[in-house]
Amino acid sequence: RGLPHVHTAHDLNLLCARTSMTRDGSFCGGRCAECRVQRQIRGRAASRRLDRFIGVSNYITDRHLSAGIVDSDRAVTIRVGAEPGPARVRTGSDAPTLGFIGMLAAHKGVPTLLRAASAAPASWRILVAGAGPLADDVASAAAADARIAVPLGTAMSTPA
Q: 154 falls in which pLDDT band (50, 70, 90)?
């Protein structure tokens, strides 16, 4: 019909069958056979018809550019969510609360977070929300350390 084709990427599904370039909770870089097939079939098919590519983060855009899915002159990053607000001066606190929301997996830094939490000052509080292969580790850490909390309603289990 001659209409332009615009692809908005929120993940890496043109590059990776699992959309995240991870295997068993660790970054694999898309080197596995399933990802190569995904890039050859889906990624190349999309790239032949793609007039514009919109990535929701610079990381997403850059991964598609480096994989050759789209040329830089047809790609743009448009961040979703709240508009940037004015800079705020943050004041120090002896009892800060830190938060993590995301996949509970090694490639997201969860083991590093748990190690840091165990070494944090006694007045600190760490909230962890998400699901993934390290959910049991987070639950164990929370049970052993009162500073680590799992908010109510958090799906703290490994996905089926």
A: low
